[in-house]
């Protein structure tokens, strides 16, 4: 039996407090629900609890399997995890120590240029630690269990995704010029993507914590896998809003990546994610209209606006 968390707010809140109390060995104090797109999340002074019903995706299990093995200081310490039974069914949960700081947020709203550069420098340094990590045993096995991440795996796969999107678009939702633009990007993509370093694969600015001009943690390793550093640099730059050029500059300088190669790699990865997301939205009409509209705007930016080339190298 699975739990319908949307109909059991009080019970879920009480369960989250009980999980935090067990992990801390004391009363956790007040815990408040915070917005999350895929979990129920409760935050207290010293603990954060994430819950999801047991029939939903298993990515939380992936995260908790990796947490004890990640490089020290990279993410919030895992205090406890497991399965909990509510009256409405079972939930999976993870309880973490609360790390100081708040998320800069998608597009880094309200962040000034100097702070954006400082945060990007620290984020790239932390990602470098992750990319240099050599996992073994259970962590290695978990990272090799590749989720359907929608990211770039190679030229042939991207071309196939674009044609799959075209086939799914029975109502002509995606303008032909945008499909042609995706095909052009795919045709110039590398034959294969590397899979030789651990990557977070979802490190946009909602998944970082920062205090002042310092990064304090990288959260949510549910999509972590083996890939190549560009898989992470794309997320960091693309969701930096007005600071994208600054973040690209930080990445290029810190990693020694030629700016043209960095922009081209990011462009290919955005094309991959957009093709996969749009196809999914079109194959599930009604349930994902908002996603389709958002991804179409991004695709227009990518193809017509030449997003990755309109800055210093345009």
Description:
With 314 residues, this protein is α+β, with helices and mostly antiparallel strands. The chain folds into two domains: 5-97, Phosphorylase Kinase, domain 1, CATH 3.30.200; 113-309, Alpha-Beta Complex (Aminoglycoside 3'-phosphotransferase, Chain: A, domain 2), CATH 3.90.1200. Helices cover 44% and strands 15% of the residues. It has ten helices and nine strands. The protein has helices spanning 9-24, 59-66, 113-132, 137-144, 155-168, 176-187, 230-238, 244-255, 259-283, 289-303, and strands at residues 32-34, 40-43, 47-53, 78-86, 89-97, 197-199, 208-211, 214-218, 225-227. The strands form three sheets. A five-stranded antiparallel sheet has the order 1-2-3-5-4, with helices on both faces. Strands 6-9 form a two-stranded antiparallel sheet. Helix 7 (230-238) runs antiparallel to helix 8 (244-255) and helix 7 crosses helix 9. It is globular and about 60 Å long. The mean pLDDT is 93.
